[in-house]
Amino acid sequence: MKKLTMAFHLILLTSLLAACSKDGGDGGKTADGGAAGKAGESAGYKKLGDEPLKLTFFNTSGTFPDVEFNTLIAAPIKAKYPNVTIERITPAAQTTNEEVLSTYTPDIIYSSSSSHQRIIRTGAYEDLRPLIKLHKFDESRIKPILYDYIKEITKGKGDAVIAIPFNANQHVLYYNKDIFDKFGVPYPTSKQQTWDEILDAARKLTRTDNGSRYIGLSVDNLTGLAKGLGLPYLDRETGKAALDTPAWRRIFELNKKIFELPGYVAPDKKWNYGREEFYKDQKVAMRVTWLANMVGPMEELRQQGVEFNWDIAPAPNFSDQLGKTREAQIHSLSVNSKSKHKDEAFQVIAEILSNDGQRILARNGRVPAIINPELNKEYGLDIPVLKGKSVQNAFVGEPLQEHYIHPYELEIGKRLEEAAADLAINGLDVNSAIRKATEAINKDVETLKTTIGNP
């Protein structure tokens, strides 16, 4: 009996020690908020870099060229942890995220609002709360407008944390100085301007010269303009279209004014102008869009020997909204729920969110996800394409928190593009375009309730 009692106590003691180890023990975070430090193994996880390890990485949405992947993620991790390699999964063109995630098991998933809801439906996101606790990750360092958006996605559904913000993708106005000089138009100012002021310049810059057409302004149309007021596409409770409001009508009216600039719509009915027309064709004078949409691709273009005279100004807004800029899109990092290296993958994410990791991010043209105003002063210092540019204009105006992306929103986004076409080339007035889009969206929603299910 005495032997049994002693055995029981030994088992109990062993269990308690194991439980303490599993709960994190005395494992701490590094001074700059990165991954847990030397106490790693006693904290119940394998210390990153102790053994050779390859982790795979997959980008589900957003512009993230190889030059940025290597500079911001693969190279810094390899430099600090020589035994760790981050390898990018690059599927064939037109392969869907769902197809990739059913074929591969990337350890780290890079996402944005353009994919979060779809990836949630695949079940690929690991709930990071246990890993946050285990690794003593300091969530208070992350900018609230970014982290609050992430938490809002799953609010009321277990409130899991599916991702850690990687950077704030803010909006600016890019402009081609050569086109402004060609037509003698003053450059946009470093003071935030109104849409009326920008439209006045765009009117002077939208013209044909020696057979070449120049477009004064590109704004990503209805979807881009709506981000200046933080507008949802769908009602969160009913799932129905949310376009028939004074705020959305204001957006439709502004887009209509842009399309009505003399010469904006081409004789062949071309009406939509984007990145290619700005940085490759160099026929668009101004483009209002995300930082990440342009900086990386223009650096790749520079490395190919293509450069031109451009700069950055603050994103414009309505006169009663000055001081605010467009929504800051969240680019985020997640751990795959099927990964065999969840602990290590999270430690990589924590390292990228450390002060050192975010400094690399800032110096190479991404706005950091952490609260550290000093990093803004270093923005763009290490990326050649931003040398000599007015990069501090990226921080003029307070970015809005991204609106709640309804689970159906990504599927009905095409209706906003159709509505823009209706305004540009199909002769619809604003009220008719809103009514047509609303009817189409509501029909889509009824179908989505069947195919996707109720959110």
From TrEMBL:
<dbReference type="Pfam" id="PF01547">
    <property type="entry name" value="SBP_bac_1"/>
</dbReference>
<feature type="signal peptide">
    <location>
        <begin position="1"/>
        <end position="18"/>
    </location>
</feature>
<protein>
    <submittedName>
        <fullName>Extracellular solute-binding protein</fullName>
    </submittedName>
</protein>
<dbReference type="InterPro" id="IPR006061">
    <property type="entry name" value="SBP_1_CS"/>
</dbReference>
<dbReference type="GO" id="GO:0030313">
    <property type="term" value="C:cell envelope"/>
</dbReference>
<comment type="similarity">
    <text>Belongs to the bacterial solute-binding protein 1 family.</text>
</comment>
<keyword id="KW-0732">Signal</keyword>
<dbReference type="InterPro" id="IPR006059">
    <property type="entry name" value="SBP"/>
</dbReference>
<dbReference type="InterPro" id="IPR050490">
    <property type="entry name" value="Bact_solute-bd_prot1"/>
</dbReference>
<keyword id="KW-0813">Transport</keyword>
<dbReference type="GO" id="GO:0055085">
    <property type="term" value="P:transmembrane transport"/>
</dbReference>
<keyword id="KW-0574">Periplasm</keyword>
